[in-house]
Amino acid sequence: MVTRVDFNFGDDGSQESVVISSDQLARVVRAALQDKVLLSEQAAPHDLWRDIEAVTRLLEGLEDWRERAIVAVDESGTVDRSALGIAASMGAAKLYDLLERHGRPRNQTRLTQVEVLESRVTGEDGEWDPARVVATMNSYGWETDDKRARALLRALTEQEVLEKIPNRGGRAVYQVVSPRDWLYCLDPERDTIENGPSTPARVARLAREDSGPTEWWLGKPLKRMRDGDRLWIYFGGVEGKIAAMAHVKSSPRPAPIGSQKPYEFDAELDLKATTALSKSPIRLEEMDQRHPQACGEMRAADVKLAEARANL
């Protein structure tokens, strides 16, 4: 019995056939699975020569099919490229070269790096460490070593995709950068905002006026503060409550000479959240942080409560 295998080659649809006897194919496949080259009564050298010719043509056809299948899967968008590389036993560089030959974009953007790495190596606590990154990249066929993994970590840290957490048991630990929540304290009797008193009622009115980002003051640089963070405004003194929220619009910078405090940043009041908080503020006695002062990261329990009160 004879087995005929047809392959389409090239974009012009040209076709070529491989004809191989079932006995011959079975013998070759069995030998391949057993990791043997059969030189015996079953396969004399002359027969083996014919086997080599037929199998070579078969492999060429299978490789062409495999390449087209990889492209088809990538075009479908249903499987991410790291999983596709595993199925094809290809490193990232080889896979991307293959896709480029077929007009597929490399698309190795910052977003892709975040999605791939975050889904593979972020634990429940959101932390990464270099050893886990290296092991994960190797297991998914990324062509890398410890040095290149460290270079990737540095690059993602510079891009503010990751941030390095110091003093964790003597080794560097990295985590995904996400927006932070800051508790910003104002004393209505001493602090001013927009050249006027910093009372809850006036801040709520400023939010309604929607004047855009304004300058806010800091006594220390708060290097981890960046654009996209949230600012929950606590009014101290007799008020003792969180009654407004703003969005940070810049990282802290040195303030001009003669400013109220040595550092400043830009922030914009959120009308919806501030309106809700002014109607239902968070009193000091409800807060997990019982001694709020200046500006610092907000505790998780207080963030959860603030989001609920702000209808977020």
Characterization of this structure:
With 312 residues, the chain is α+β, with helices and mostly antiparallel strands. The protein is built from 10 helices and 15 strands. Strands 6, 9, 10, 11, 12, 13, 14 and 15 form an 8-stranded mixed β-sheet that branches. A 3-stranded antiparallel β-sheet has the order 3-5-4. The chain is elongated. The termini are far apart.
Provide the succession of SSEs. EEHHHHHEHHEEEEEHEEEEEHEEH
- Estimate the helix proportion, in percent: 40-55%
| Rg computed from alpha carbons, rounded to a whole number of angstroms | 31 Å
Q: In terms of structural class, how would the helical and strand content be classed?
A: alpha+beta
Count of helix runs: 10
* Number of distinct beta strands: 15
Q: What best-fitting shape do the alpha-carbon axes yield?
A: elongated
- Mean of all residue-level pLDDT scores: 78
Distance between the termini: 71 Å
Q: Main β-sheet, in a few words?
A: 8 strands, mixed
Poorly predicted spans: none
Q: What is the beta-strand fraction? A: 15-25%
Oligomer: single chain
